[in-house]
Amino acid sequence: MMGLEDCSPSLRAKKLRWRAMAERYQASLAAKRRGSFSRADWLEILEVHDHRCAWCLRKAERLEADHVIALGRGGEHEPSNIVPACVRCNRSKKDRVVFYMLEVA
What we know:
Strand order of the largest sheet: 1-2
Distance between the termini: 45 Å
Largest sheet: 2 strands, antiparallel
Shape: elongated
Number of domains: 1
Strand content: 5-15%
Order of helices and strands: HHEEHH
Number of strands: 2
Radius of gyration: 17 Å
Oligomer: single chain
Number of helices: 4
C-alpha cells in the first residue's frame, strides 16, 4: 500500500480528508460511551426551549436532539451540550460550530 508521501497531491488530499472523517467518527463513538442522556433529560430540554428549535425558534412537530458541539469535534453526549433542533436546521448544521448557525438563522 502506498504511503501518503508516494501519492499524487489529489489522492493525498482525499486520503487526509478520509482520515480526518474517520477520526471524527471515532471521537463521536467515544463521546457517546462517555456521556449520559436520558428521556427525562430530553423532555426537560424541550420544556426549557418551549418545544421550539434552538436555531430558528420555530415550533416544529418533530424536533431532534442536536449536539451544540458535535460529538465528532469533541462534544459530550450530555444534556448541557444538547438542544432541540428542527430537521431542517439539524441537517444544515451537520458538524459545524454554533457560530455558523447563528449566521444562518
